[in-house]
Amino acid sequence: MKDGGAGVDNAREGRDEPDIEAYRPLLFAIAYRMLGSVMDAEDIVQEAFLSWNEREQSGIHHPKAYLCKIVTNRCVDRIRGAVREREAYVGPWLPVPLLTEDTRDNDPGAAYLRKESLSTAYLLLLQQLSWSERAVFVLREALGYEYDEIAEIVGKSSVNCRQIYRRARKAVSGLETSAEVPIPKSEKLRQTVDEFVAALTGGHPGKLIGLLKADANLYSDGGGKATAATRPILGAERVASFLFGVLAKFPSDFSYRVADVNGQPGIVTYFGDVPSSVVTLRIEAGVVAAVYIVVNPDKLGHLPARH
């Protein structure tokens, strides 16, 4: 057995092997968009690498497509297995927030983590699609794959993938027409977020309401493990009232910082050094159309402490 293992190792050393680690950002981008979970996405990428290392690779002619297929299939398994869990979830479900502020322009993986398709609103739209629609849509819309490449990954014909993509795009557009509204430039987004924070922490209800769209919504995800609204808050005045009510109950060691969350400016709050919530906004034409607050501790455990 030892000699056989050494022979395989020597054979591998004798040929050029692809640097599969270079595919990690891409694989994570696929898994995170499909699942909306940082932890699950990281687990699935690691499982894909283990699968690669455990099998004979001489017959794999397209490592990138092979790894993408493994990740996609395992995401589909997770999606199917999580149906009952999602149905039993307490209150609104929101994606696990992803801090993207540490990505650098010269990082080859940065392009996958600085796209509009990472925003909370976009990820929520993806959750409405079937597994096949979600997979095809992510690979085509977010990552720019050709239909032939997608077909190889999802195990369908390119013609079928084209049809699935059209159906998914129509579904997404039908779910929320505001998804078609162009997202403002990052400078404008940051300015609106700064104004939002200043109005809230400065105790200016009028200014805050002025920054909110009249029919703005607020979604608060506590998952039954933290205090949160179990139903969406509707209307600018109600949203403002809810936010000021929450802020009034914060402990004296509360602090916050504006950070890049899901590719856009967001807010991370802390009790002491521990992250207590992440707030992201959907901004349309300079006003806040939706507020998303994640307070479920299970979705914040991967965030670093504040130093």
TrEMBL record:
This is RNA polymerase sigma-70 factor. Interacts transiently with the RNA polymerase catalytic core formed by RpoA, RpoB, RpoC and RpoZ (2 alpha, 1 beta, 1 beta' and 1 omega subunit) to form the RNA polymerase holoenzyme that can initiate transcription. It comes from the Bacteria. Residues 20-84 form the RNA polymerase sigma-70 region domain. Residues 121-171 form the RNA polymerase sigma factor 70 region 4 type domain. SUPFAM superfamilies: NTF2-like, Sigma2 domain of RNA polymerase sigma factors, Sigma3 and sigma4 domains of RNA polymerase sigma factors. InterPro entries: ECF_Sigma-70_Domain, NTF2-like_dom_sf, RNA_pol_sigma-70_dom, RNA_pol_sigma-70_ECF, RNA_pol_sigma70_r2, RNA_pol_sigma70_r4_t2, RNA_pol_sigma_r2, RNA_pol_sigma_r3/r4-like.
